[in-house]
Specification:
- This protein is 27% helix and 20% strand.
- The protein is of the alpha/beta class.
- Helix 11 links the parallel strand 16 (331-335) and strand 17.
- Helix 5 (99-110) runs parallel beside helix 6 and helix 12 runs parallel beside helix 13 (454-471).
- It starts with 7 loop residues before the first helix and ends with a helix.
Length: 497
């Protein structure tokens, strides 16, 4: 059901006087707000047979505006347990009122029924600072479950607000642009499952204290935390996801969480306790030279990995051939997306090291989408016509599905693909997508952010030619080969760019 926000007040007035025919055929006459003897349904709605969630949906966009003309809408507005308050959501403010006054009125109208979810985005509005503590005092009832605060770096979040009732109920806490200094006195956050800190001033000891009091924590995300050098994660049994990004001062992460499976780290070195690392089966890792780091470090400390997702920020070091193995690895994803060009010194063919090290591998997904290709092309002439072989690599009898996104005519990439085709005797599916991950033909494309330019289009045609010249005839007939080529839509995007 869709409504026009500008027509909601008129709709409210019309519904107030409307004669409605319910589904059972009876007729219900809507009476005025003052006629309480004809009480409607749970919301005091003028149409009693409408479900409550539909009324919430209808009322949400303009409930605050309509409250001045309809007591029914006012009751609906006050019972909404989820609020998002920012300059955009409160763009319609009555003459003479300020943003602070509007937020103050809304929160006090909700103080009696309690909030489940509150998102408060002040957009660096300094005028609101004197009111924030009182707003949070009103909002922090015993039943609040999710809190998202985007404030200002000068604001100091008052830990005293985390009363015993709040500590029992809150499940999601997101703080951005503020100071947060929890101590032992804060007490246990028994229900907290997600902690998200972005540009928050907090020390390593303070964060460790907070984590030690959050035994139910499942997801921890840290972005741009400058005051932590060593991050110590205690033995949190439920923690399975860790993200640490843009924390320039962070050097080491010491982790004792036994069930951590998804790690997204762009810089710091991670030290796992031996017992915890041995249990790791599912790992997502994001950092510079990620493929090289994973090949060198992970087989020895995480030998039981079954699923590995690598997101490389800048791969310039070739992946080495080593005797260590990923004996249990079944699913491998390597993403090396770049908006410009990869370093031409990086050799795609070195990724064959993962094939050699993973005898149980079943699926391989490689994304090498880039803005332009600067590697030596297989059509470059000279020695380019001769493709390197890897006779030392044993036959691979588990690999069934291989997909390469952003496939180009780079000689090393063509050599890698040929090696996979020849050595993976169990291969059933091979997809070579010559388009970028966010091109106009892909599901990820959101116009107009990634136009399909002529440079990418020309390289896609060279990639198709490389497939036909060097790969297609090598693919066994039982393997389903799919080549994704530029389409008519790509031409139109190219012509308009």
């Amino acid at each position: 059901m869709e409504t026009n926000p500008s027509s909601a007040p008129a709709m409210a007035l019309q519904l107030e006087k409307q004669i409605v025919a319910p589904q059972n055929g009876s007729v219900v006459q809507r009476v005025g707000d003052d006629d309480s003897q004809h009480g409607a349904s749970t919301l005091g709605s003028p149409i009693p047979f409408l479900p409550e969630d539909i009324w919430h949906y209808i009322h949400l966009c303009d409930a605050a505006r309509s409250a001045c003309i309809s007591q029914s809408f006012l009751r609906s507005w006050r019972c909404l347990p989820n609020l998002t308050l920012n300059q955009m959501s409160l763009c319609w403010i009555p003459y003479g009122q300020t943003f602070s006054c509007k937020v103050d009125n809304i929160l006090r109208n909700h103080s009696a029924i309690g909030l489940k979810t509150l998102t408060l985005n002040l957009n660096d509005d300094h005028a609101t600072f004197p009111y924030v503590n009182s707003w949070l005092q009103v909002a922090f009832t015993a039943g609040i479950e999710e809190l998202t605060l985007r404030l200002h770096e000068k604001y100091n979040f008052p830990c005293s607000l985390l009363s015993d009732g709040v500590r029992k109920s809150i499940r999601y806490l997101e703080l951005k642009f503020c100071a947060f200094h929890p101590t032992v006195e804060v007490g246990p956050l028994r229900s907290l499952t997600t902690l998200y800190l972005n540009s928050v001033r907090i020390t390593g000891d303070e964060l460790e204290c907070l984590l030690s009091n959050s035994l139910a924590l499942e997801r921890l995300q840290l972005i741009d935390i400058k005051d932590i050098v060593i991050l110590k994660i205690p033995c949190l049994q439920q923690l399975n996801s860790l993200g640490v990004m843009l924390c320039q001062g962070l050097e080491v992460i010491e982790c004792k969480a036994p069930n951590l499976s998804r790690v997204n780290v762009d810089k710091a070195k991670i030290k796992f306790s031996p017992g915890e690392a041995l249990q790791m089966k599912d790992l997502t890792l994001r950092r510079a030279n990620c493929a090289c780091h994973a090949r060198v470090e992970l087989p020895s400390i995480m030998p039981n990995l079954q699923r590995l997702l690598l997101r490389s920020l800048n791969e310039v070091v070739n992946t080495p051939m080593l005797p260590s193995k990923f004996l249990h690895l079944k699913h491998l994803t390597i993403s090396m997306i770049s908006g410009s060009a990869f370093s031409p010194s990086y050799d795609y063919f070195s990724l064959v090291s993962f094939l050699d090290a993973s005898p149980s591998l079943e699926t391989l997904f490689l994304d090498v989408s880039q803005g332009r290709m600067e590697h030596e092309s297989v059509f470059g002439g000279g020695s380019s016509a001769h493709l390197r072989q890897f006779p030392e690599l044993h036959r691979h009898d588990r690999l069934k599905s291989v997909e390469i996104m952003g496939f180009s005519s780079a000689k090393g990439l063509v050599e890698l693909t040929c090696c996979i085709v020849k050595k993976a005797v169990s291969l059933e599916r091979l997809v070579l997508n010559t388009l970028r991950h966010n091109s106009c033909c892909s599901k990820e494309y959101i116009p107009p952010y990634s136009p399909f330019n002529k440079v990418v289009l020309d390289e896609a045609f060279r990639a198709v030619a490389a497939i036909r010249s060097y790969i297609q005839d090598e693919v066994p007939p039982e393997v389903n080969l799919t080549v994704v080529e530029p389409c008519a839509r790509c031409y139109s995007f190219c012509a308009s760019s």
